[in-house]
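Figure 2 data, in text form.
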Amino acid sequence: MNKIKKYDVELATRIRICLSGLEAVNEKEMFGGLTFMVNDKMCVGVIKEEMMCRIDPDFHDTAIEMTGCRTMDFTKKPMKGYIYIADEGMKTNEDFDYWINLALEFNKKAKSSKKANKK
């Protein structure tokens, strides 16, 4: 039996293609969606029909004023530095690339989450 995806598979493919030229990209299913880890750090993902981007928290308030962008509130708690982009905010390739590049730029300076010691 096939597992039904709870996220936009076409959007995931669009992101996958965009990140295909990079090294150290891994995919993980989390948050009920798909997350793309770059250099072992959460970078971009798909939650239901929206793209999730991890951006510079200092740019967060500016970003959420843009079309289709809102604060990620997955746990009902707003998360500064994490945003959702709805379809209307990434209809053009230029808009889509803007958000991906914003997340990739922050990824360079973002700290990775601490990994549990496995013994």
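Caption note: The chain has three helices and six strands.
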